[in-house]
Amino acid sequence: GSKNGTLVGGERSTQCVLAEGDLIEIGSSLLVYRDAGGSTSEQGDRDLAADQAVPDVFRTLSVQLERRAAELLRIAPTRVPVLVVGETGTGKELVARAIHELSGRIGPFVPVNCGALPRELVESELFGYRRGAFSGARDDRTGLARKADRGTLFLDEVAELPEASQVALLRLLQEGEVRPLGSSEFVHVNVRVIAATHQNLEARMDDGRFRRDLHGRLAGVELLMPPLR
Hints:
single chain; 229 residues; alpha/beta; four-stranded antiparallel sheet; 11 strands; 18% strand; elongated
């Protein structure tokens, strides 16, 4: 009966039966209803907010997102590729950085905006080149993938990669190797790949603009970030 009222799931309510994960708003206070029927270990796994070691980006009132975040915490120390999908501004790079920080990898976090790279320079920027590989290549260049050795390579807007570059990225994921432009030899790279996109990859795969086998390699774990609204 108060002016602000009580909201359950965003709807004003005076009486209702609560379900697992319901968000309750009472004035400026937010409560999440959790079913106490689960085992203690299950509840502990899901209670991310109680774990002070959890990065802020994983703290959430969304039960569904919390469960996905718990999965990311478990796979962070591994080399399992992660694909983060969501609208612009939903924190995809923040998630990628948090996974890297939790991974224990000693190399750097190297972010790449694939959509901002000129199509003719994508492979040289990502995988490097040898001197003389093309006009203007006066010195050897290692490329961003090798710069991320023993660390994490974050490929933002990965859906924008041209097909030829998708093939080269597939080899990096499968074999852990890159071949600089102008070289006949492959170079081994120890890198964890995290990719992100706001595009509908399923639609792009259906019309042939994105390789389905590459998607399978990138989406070891897929996280859908909810829109901020």
